[in-house]
Amino acid sequence: MTAASRAPVMADVARLAGVSHQTVSRVINGSPSIKPETRERVLQAIERLGYRPNIAARALVRGRSGMIGIIGTARTFFGPTSIHRSVEDAAREAGYFATSVSLSDVTRRALSDATEHLMRVGVEGIVMIAGHDEALEVVRMQPARVPFVVVEGDLSKASLTVGVDQVRGARMATEHLLSLGHREIVHVSGPLNWAEARARVEGWRLAMSESGLRPAEPVRGDWSSESGYTAGERICEMPGATAVFAANDQMAIGVLRALHECGRRVPDDISVVGFDDVPEAAYLIPPLTTIQQDFDAVGRRAIEVVTQAIKGTELQPSPLVIPKLVVRKSTAPPTRTST
């Protein structure tokens, strides 16, 4: 096989840059002892040749696997799926392999089995993307053989945590509706065995109570559009309600359909706010006002925390990622006073 027909190796980079094999290795591994002009010459040679370091070989030499495990759900929920993708991307950028286990059913047994599987393949750390309470129980019971980072769970119940400020996001959604003049704001919650759902209920209640209002019990959903539709049917029978805050966009979509079918116009008769900012939110009729979560930032922080823990760095609590209110056409001031 000729040099032109095979993948470039480190020796090729060294020849082109006019340095030793060891110098190329130090540049790749981020050694601070390399002169800037030498580093630039090596990096230019790497780019010109299209050289890709063999991460597996480097890990073997160091006596490490170079792998980070990710546990997530196989469901199509937008938030967990987006975070899963961002964690995988951030792991690769940090020079780690990402190996994933996706669960079709979030149970204690399934999570324990997934954890044991990742331990057997030799991961150096695990990122668990599951807001379900069962996930936190597994983390608490798991022997501390490798660092665990919990993403979007109950962030008060695990030592290494990363997430979005869900309470603040729910407050933003509710305060937006209050600022428009709404007073009877119905909340469609997610399943309350999910920490994110409870946090969004808390944020809604706080905003309502701080405005001197007594919120009714939330209408329960399960994150799906179908459950949002069922909740919307119930809201159609609440003549005093002038606004709805749904705990995710999928449920908000179901609410919009039910309101349309019962003749309540959005936003003329009733306003609707979602949570997540799914790609379809801007193209609904009307476009959906929602809370946007920076999932890329969550993924990066998760990998930063787990890699620092792997290195034994003393960790400070990771600040929550601040969400953003995206105002579209599904919200407006009420045209009548709630009764």
Question: Approximately how much helix is present in the residues?
Answer: 40-55%
Number of strands: 11
Mind telling me the CATH class of the largest domain? Alpha Beta
Query: Which structural class fits the helix and strand makeup?
Result: alpha/beta
> What percentage of amino acids are in beta strands?
5-15%
Which oligomerization state do the chains in this entry correspond to?
single chain
Shape: elongated
Mean pLDDT: 86
Question: What does this 3D model show about the protein?
Answer:
The protein is of the alpha/beta class. The protein folds into three domains: 10-53, 434 Repressor (Amino-terminal Domain) (Orthogonal Bundle), CATH 1.10.260; 65-163 and 295-320, Rossmann fold (3-Layer(aba) Sandwich); 166-293, Rossmann fold (3-Layer(aba) Sandwich), CATH 3.40.50.2300. It has twelve helices and eleven strands. The strands form three sheets. The protein has a five-stranded parallel beta sheet with strand order 2-1-3-4-5, with helices on both faces. Strands 7-6-8-9 form a four-stranded parallel beta sheet, sandwiched between helices. Strand 6 (185-189), helix 9 and strand 7 form a beta-alpha-beta unit. Helix 1 (10-17) crosses helix 3, helix 5 crosses helix 12 (295-311) and helix 10 packs across helix 11 (249-261). The longest helix has 17 residues, at 295-311. The mean pLDDT is 86.
Layout of helices and strands, plus pairs?
Layout: H1 10-17, H2 21-28, H3 36-49, H4 55-62, E1 67-73, H5 78-93, E2 97-103, H6 108-120, E3 125-129, H7 133-141, E4 148-151, E5 161-162, H8 166-179, E6 185-189, H9 195-210, E7 219-220, H10 225-236, E8 243-246, H11 249-261, E9 271-273, E10 290-292, H12 295-311, E11 324-326
Parallel strand pairs: 1-2, 1-3, 3-4, 4-5, 6-7, 6-8, 8-9
Antiparallel strand pairs: 10-11
Helix pairs in contact: 1-2, 1-3, 5-12, 8-9, 10-11
